Amino acid sequence: MTVPPGDPIRVGVSACLLGQKVRFDAGHKHDRYLTDELGRWLELVPVCPEAEVGMGTPREAVHLTGDAAAPRLVGGRSGEDWTERMRSWSRARAQALDGEDLCGFVFKKDSPSCGVWRVKVRNPGTMAERTGRGLFADAFARAHPLLPLEEEGRLHDPKLRENFIERVFAYHRATRLFRGRWTRGEAVAFHSREKYLLMAHSPRHYRELGRLVAAVKDHTPAAFRDLYLAGFMEALAVHATPSRHGNALLHIVGYLRGHVADEERRRVTAVIDDHRAGLVPLVVPMTLVKHYIELHDIAYIRDQSYLNPHPRELLLRNHGGGGGGGGAPRPGPGRAGGDPLPPPRHGGSPGMRVKIAVSRCLLGERVRYDGKAKACPVVLEALAARAELVAVCPEVEVGMTVPREAVDLFGGTAAPRMIGAETGEDWTERMAAWARGRAEDLLASGIAGAVLKARSPSCGAGDAAVHPGGGGDPVAGDGMFVLALRRAAPGLPVARDEDLGGEADVEAFLARARAYAAGRAR
């Protein structure tokens, strides 16, 4: 998923969430996920109703009172009534935002101007009831009924987060179709590309929109546009479920017939069934399916929005347990995290189930320096069937961007330095500090082994190229994250993806991991 240059996806945001000191107490409510994660992909447009309507900063707090269906906005101490001024300003501001070409809005929760759901409405002598909506949020929602709206607090819920972001990117795609002159053929092609995304959300809407597209010539362009956009966004507002994801994926697997051996297709189907049962996150079957689609260049499926509805770097499909929800915000340096992937019930092998750290690129995530992934089917199938996977990417988690310049190791194998291949930027101290903290966190969480990307300057296990000082051929050593793991836990089983050629190799590695875990337990 890429956004065309010069065509940014713009999302409105309550200004305090972007770190602007516009709250009543002259403070802010900076949300790092919005600015540091979503801000990489979206252009965030700040709005502060209370500051912009003229209340001043700092100011007395205001609250809603009266009838929740038509509340008054009044000062908490003075009782000053701001209702009409706020309503008038909100209508004008909502209309003016038409010119900002927004594809969504993130509001400040609980705010009497910006809260979308369950805002307190106070009345003398009674308990405050959470039945209101902020005056600006209400005016904006009425003026833009198709736009995805969300509150920053609800974005911490993985399912709500993925649904919102998916709708933002979908709204951008759909409105670009209908911008300017468009043809019936373009509308049909768009609907065809959105087929499996719609099926995963609402088969009923998919069928209804299909009938609308089939009768496109019976409508004026404006009428068709309005009907299609309304149905399209209504469909995506229905939350996708593991069952519907499974149905969409099984339809896609049908296109592998004639390209992939029956046994391989059965293995993919088994992983899809695990997702439908809520046992593995969507990223696992999705990566397997995409692997075969790209390998055999099956164009019709390759171009489906369902396979890439938003940037994979957002990790929205990595969260397990309930399928179709988003991943948690990426962990920072020295923090435990890296969304654990729950294991499926494959029958598996006897013995205890252990937790294994795995390089994110092996799970199909495009986190490598060149923006690519190195999906490993053995890891995604055989290992995921027998262990709980914890995803980790040292270079991204330490703060390097995607894509980025490659880094190389220099000096001795015991204490190499990590240097940017083009700029010469020295990442050594940052990576060493992060790796120590991450290794300690992972061990404290109970990992019993690691499967990491071969030859990586951070994840390579005995095969990372270390360039000696003074020239000469590079020698093989450990990447900086592996060095930290070995120092923190001597004897921890560490394997490269290339060491796992099949189920027998996976079982041998897991036997060592189980022995390590049992030894630690004693």
Number of strands: 17
Shape: globular
Number of helices: 18
Spatial strand sequence of the major β-sheet = 9-11-10-14-17
Estimate percent helicity. 25-40%
Poorly predicted runs are 320-351
Percent of sequence in beta strands: 5-15%
Short description:
About 6% of the residues have low confidence. The chain starts with 9 loop residues before the first strand and ends with a helix.
Q: What would you note in describing this structure?
A:
The chain has helices spanning 32-37, 49-52, 83-96, 135-143, 158-177, 184-193, 195-201, 203-214, 221-237, 242-253, 262-276, 283-296, 299-302, 377-383, 394-397, 428-445, 480-488, 503-521; strands at 10-14, 43-47, 62-65, 72-75, 102-107, 119-122, 129-132, 149-151, 340-341, 354-359, 387-392, 407-410, 417-420, 447-452, 464-467, 475-477, 494-496. Helices cover 39% and strands 14% of the residues. It is α/β, with parallel strands linked by helices and 522 residues long. β15 (464-467) and β16 (475-477) form a beta hairpin. A five-stranded mixed sheet has the order 9-11-10-14-17. Strands 2-1-5-8 form a four-stranded parallel sheet, with helices on one face.
